[in-house]
Amino acid sequence: MEAILAALFGLLIGSFLNVCIYRLPRDLSVARPSRSFCPLCEATIAWYDNIPVLSYILLKGQCRACAAKISWRYPLVELLTAAAFFASFQIAGPGLLAIKLCIFSAIQIALIFSDLEERILPDEFTLGGILVGIVFSWFVLMPSSLIFLLAPYTWDRHWTSLAESVFSATFVSLALWGFGELYYRIRKREGLGFGDVKMVGMFGAFFGLQGALLFMIAGSILGSVSGLLYIFLAKKDAASYELPFGSFLGLSALILSLITRGLTR
In this structure, which of 54, 83, 193, 211 has its CB flanked by the most CB atoms within 10 Å? Predict the structure, then answer.
């Protein structure tokens, strides 16, 4: 029952994420206007046309005012968020870990589609996610890692978990930034955006060094294989095509965080 209620709540959160995905990369407020509007004709969308998934089906994917096509992204984000929330409670059971997984999943879904559509990873999700992950590390303890061996023996698990979160966020961010800087100096062109650096820092804040490295490796493999395949099939220029690396990182993190229960022991 808790998982079903979480899925229904996930539909509502997914609807809000759609607002964020459209507005934040365009530097628009998510609060004003408070009502959703059609991007083409700017007509205000009535509440009965804004019911997650159902309204899209009833409207046949079109704006009621101007008949413009509504992107498939809207129901997809709502359904993905509902599925992620359901899986979080089904896998972890009711509790703080499930809530942590839900929040992390929602952030990843927003970042996946923001990067896919606009090649932007909004700070509200990356930097905000780092802060949320650090806060959660006090209540949902990190798995034992290097920091647990180096921390003073007088520290209890809450302090060492918090230290692991801060250390991991800092370490993986600096490591990826260093790799990107090295790539730039060798190839004389940008290979990574700073949004990706902040995104992996969020991984470390939520799931520690082990989780962040796992997500980064999986995302890199997925991005490389998928990117090369897309470039070949679409006949894109490999030297100039901008790969949405954040989308692949987010997808890998979303799946692996649920499979591994956030690597929390």
Answer: 211
**In this structure, are 170 and 69 located in the same domain?**
no
For residues 95 and 80, is the Cβ–Cβ distance under 8 A?
A: no
Tell me the mean pLDDT per 10 residues along the chain, length 265: 95 96 92 83 88 94 91 97 97 94 98 94 97 96 73 78 92 91 76 86 94 94 86 72 87 94 64
Same structural domain, 42 and 88: yes
Instruction: Give this prediction's pTM.
Output: 0.92
- Cβ–Cβ < 8 Å for 260, 210: no
- 183, 233 in Cβ contact below 8 A? no
Reading the block at residue 200, the tokens are: 């992996």
Q: What six digits make up the tokens of 20?
A: 């964020």
Residue at 19: amino acid letter: V
53-62 CB burial, b ≥16 within 10 A, e <16: bebbeeeeee
Residue 62, strand partner residues? 69
What are the tokens at 74?
């809207």
Check whether residue 167 and residue 218 sit in a common domain: yes
Strand, helix or coil for residue 192: coil
Q: At what angle do helices 73-92 and 2-23 cross, to 10 degrees?
A: 140
Do 231 and 118 belong to one domain? yes
Token code pair at residue 176 = 């990826």
Residue type, 253: A
